[in-house]
Design brief:
Order of helices and strands: HHHEEEEEEEEEEE
Largest sheet: 7 strands, antiparallel
Structural class: alpha+beta
Radius of gyration: 32 Å
Number of helices: 3
CATH architecture of the largest domain: Sandwich
Strand content: 25-35%
Helix content: 25-40%
Number of strands: 11
CATH class of the largest domain: Mainly Beta
Length: 224
Amino acid sequence: MAIPAVNSTTPQSQALNSLPQKTVTQDDFLKLLITQLQNQDPLAPMDNQEFAAQLASFNSLGQLIDINQKLGGLQNTYAATNQMSATAMIGKEITTEANTVSLASAGSAKIGFQLGASAARTVVNVLNDAGALVRQIDAGAQSAGERSVAWDGKDGSGQRLKSGLYHFEINAIDVKGTKVAATAQLRGIVTGVKLNGSEPILDVGGVDVPLSTVTGVRSASSSV
């Protein structure tokens, strides 16, 4: 016969655990100190050093509470500033490090990247969700810095691809055939902002971009 497990939790302890937990405040500490002074033994009063230590603790508690309140206010101010900064980006073109490009149902898409040095030849491979190559774009020679190429939204045989998100790879070599460092970039127009999380999220052609990852902002009319 199996022996049932013994539950060591008593009704009293359950009642105590169900009580709401209260954070100790400066007023609670002061009441405790006054109560201790009122109920001390007259024949054995509190030691002066012990009393001074408790007063120091009381003062430290007050300072910590004040600091915590100020930090909370700064955090709220920072969050509000972030939200205002994010909404101001609507309609502007942003840049972030990502190998994703959004293709609309019609028109072309801009594929952005940054080269660490000038390249004699630059090839952009466009991949679908499954990682299969759907288009290879020979961008030719490109100078160092932020660059971009236009993709007409078609595959290698000239067929129009469905709208959605695609990934891409950048392969660049210099005149000696040495590989050039290339960083993929997502570049697009901010069409909306999500403010319901811990950090504003920019909507860039259906791609969610955290505000903290944005590396560049420019007017929508400018291009590289």
